[in-house]
Design goal:
Number of helices: 2
Number of strands: 15
Structural class: mainly beta
Order of helices and strands: EEEHEEEEHEEEEEEEE
Radius of gyration: 25 Å
Shape: elongated
Number of domains: 2
Strand content: 35-45%
Largest sheet: 5 strands, antiparallel
Distance between the termini: 48 Å
Helix content: under 10%
């Protein structure tokens, strides 16, 4: 017996009600490739189906909450599994929603400086979201950053204002750690808690068990005054900065290592 799980094409749907609540759904067909009859238990435990609490693909903040099982109308020995998604995570017993009311809340912000290399001063920082998210290879989108060469093509140290933000909350119920993998390493697509869009980077979450079904989650966020952009000089065929000694010129471009963004609605505040 070899159970096959196939998601129905175009079955992914996300809905938003007038009150702002979101729901989603996905549909699968499940069958045995030898034509054997599958029991409901065979179907619900088949590898490749979602599990309760799993995050919706490419959409943070929506979690698998339940399913509907039925026989296919046109195919013999084939089951249809319709999964529903909600913004509330469900416990692994699939009966009671997790109590997401925070038991304790602690938020800390540490402001400091990050020392980095710059090749130009008096430069222009991108303001358009497209340029911040992806200045593009070879500077074809935003181009040279402008300003003045700092030291004949050599970098100098610069103190950039940064901040580390940590939000810790206590919860009871089910924790879906894998659901946060898709948003780790993303920047905020919109302004958040007074910080400009694109200036925050979600660096991950820490889990600490407190016994039973109670645990602490610590969300880590990094603020960068340059939207996490860095100066990169144009380089010659040997990989050295392409500095023109006679004209005292050199093209310098912005580079964005964290191009992906998310809404940050997964954060608990």
């Amino acid at each position: 017996m070899s159970v096959v799980v196939t998601e129905t094409p175009a079955s992914k749907k996300i809905s938003r009600a007038t009150d702002g609540s979101r729901t989603a759904s996905r549909s699968f067909i499940v069958y045995d490739d030898d034509g054997d009859t599958l029991t409901p238990s065979d179907v619900t435990t088949a590898y490749g189906l979602p599990f309760v609490g799993q995050v919706y693909p490419d959409a943070d903040g929506l979690f698998a909450s339940g399913y509907n099982l039925s026989l296919h109308n046109d195919r013999t020995n084939t089951w249809v599994v319709d999964w529903a998604y909600d913004t509330v995570q469900v416990t692994d017993d699939e009966e009671n929603p997790a109590d997401t009311t925070p038991l304790e809340t602690n938020t800390s912000i540490t402001v400091g400086l990050t020392i980095l290399d710059i090749y130009k001063s008096g430069f222009t920082l991108p303001s358009a979201a497209a340029d911040i998210n992806d200045p593009s290879p070879n500077g074809t989108n935003f181009g040279d950053i402008g300003g003045s060469i700092t030291d004949s093509g050599y970098p100098i140290s610069f103190a950039l204002p940064t901040a580390d933000i940590k939000i810790t909350k206590s919860y009871t119920g089910f924790f879906n750690g894998g659901g946060l993998l898709s948003v780790t390493g993303t920047r905020n697509s919109n302004g958040w808690m007074g910080f400009p869009a694109g200036s925050l980077l979600f660096t991950g979450v820490g889990y600490t068990s407190k016994g039973g079904n109670t645990y602490d989650l610590t969300f880590s966020i990094s603020y960068d005054a340059w939207f996490h952009l860095r100066q990169v000089p144009d380089r010659d065929v040997n990989g050295k900065p392409n500095y023109n000694k006679t004209a005292n010129t050199m093209d310098v471009f912005w580079r964005q290592a964290f191009k992906d963004t998310s809404s940050f609605t997964f954060l608990p505040i």
